[in-house]
Design goal:
By secondary structure, this protein is of the alpha/beta class. It has 15 helices and nine strands. Helix 7 crosses helix 9 and helix 14 packs across helix 15.
């Protein structure tokens, strides 16, 4: 089923005709919808207050906190969609991988996956492993009403990078060494991660998420030929797994200008674009039949209202001929961003694109 169809056997939900879902389906919208990656997080004082003294992974496993944090930017900014508050390593933690998110560092894996025997760490994910996700999404959809909730997961390549490297990396030397040196082990690793990621997204959709986004944060480190051969099959498997639900599927990576057509080919309905490629050029690279998401440079928000509006007009002008456009930043909201700048940006996009 494509994202252009209402889910089989169900009446359209409260969110079905929302501007965000209409844009994802490339239908006419009353205004260009807006949401921001990392809109729920450190840029908000109310987020810092509720997270005080609570470790990151614990906050992702408490339905009350997840609900409050996810709702905060919807209340403050009037964005057109909420995104479920979590972290890409949550499903790995849920299946027993020994990892932690260390402040100032990021996810750190105690026992990196380097051999075939290490694959035994990756068992199947069951809904019971993440029952707190089901509970939180139930609470959220009751509060959000007609505002869609976006579920999300890390893509197999990005998860594999953390698992093989043992933490964040700038070079991905261990992951790439496995990809080049033992392609069968690499393929088996990504395939297993595709199964886990698919299961995690299914839990979110079945609990009430109206769309899902697959974050392949580090895919920009790859050459197109390597992406096609060694990464695309696993990402495509994830998109195929959730296709029967009929919810829009978004695919995003950073520094992926050379991969945009391949990321669309993997099966997304919406391709996220970072700030390096104008949206009209991105549309040419992706090809027809896809909506685009993006792509204001997050650092523009530090430059003052006039500059923000100028750069926003450039994004909207580049998007004028698109089949569907969801306005977003070209990456996540930076922690020191002034929340009021985001609120003004949402209002500006809504007003300027009102039809």
């Amino acid at each position: 089923m494509s994202a252009n169809e209402s889910p089989a056997g169900r009446q359209p939900t409260a969110t079905y005709d929302s501007p965000f879902l209409k844009a994802c389906r490339r239908e006419p919208v009353p205004h260009t919808p807006v949401w921001f990656m990392r809109q729920a997080g450190r840029s908000l004082p109310e987020y810092r207050k509720v997270r005080e003294g609570v470790p990151m992974l614990e906050s992702c496993m408490r339905p009350d906190l997840v609900t409050e944090i996810t709702l905060q930017p919807v209340r403050r900014h009037d964005v057109d969609a909420a995104i479920y508050f979590s972290d890409i390593v949550v499903p790995l933690k849920a299946i027993g991988i020994d990892l932690d998110i260390k402040p100032g560092v990021g996810p750190v894996v105690e026992h990196p996956i380097r051999t075939r025997a290490d694959l035994a760490q990756l068992r199947d994910l069951t809904p019971e492993d993440v029952s707190y996700v089901t509970e939180a999404i139930g609470l959220l959809t009751a509060e959000l009403g007609a505002t869609p909730l976006i579920g999300f997961a890390g893509a197999p390549f990005t998860l594999a990078s953390y698992l093989v490297e043992g933490g964040p990396s700038r070079t991905y030397e261990n992951a790439k060494a496995m990809m080049y040196g033992d392609p069968q082990l690499w393929a088996d690793l990504l395939d297993r991660l595709a199964e886990i990621t698919s299961a995690f997204l299914k839990v979110q959709i079945e609990a009430g998420a109206s769309a899902v986004q697959l974050f392949d944060s580090w895919a920009g480190a790859l050459a197109p030929a390597d992406y096609r051969r060694s990464v695309l099959p696993a990402s495509a498997k994830v998109f195929r797994a959730v296709e029967p639900y009929g919810v829009p599927r978004i695919h995003f990576g950073v520094g992926t200008g050379e991969l945009l057509n391949l990321m669309g080919e993997a099966g997304a309905d919406v391709v996220g674009v970072d700030w390096r490629v104008p949206l009209d050029e991105a549309a040419r690279r992706v090809g027809p039949g896809k909506a685009l998401q993006g792509n204001l440079d997050p650092t523009v928000l530090f430059a003052g209202t006039e500059a923000v509006e100028t750069k926003t007009r450039e994004v909207l002008d580049a998007a004028a001929g698109l089949e569907g456009h969801v306005f977003n930043l070209g990456h996540g909201v930076m922690p020191s961003t002034d929340p009021d700048a985001l609120t003004r940006l949402v209002e500006y996009v809504h007003t300027r694109t009102a039809r």
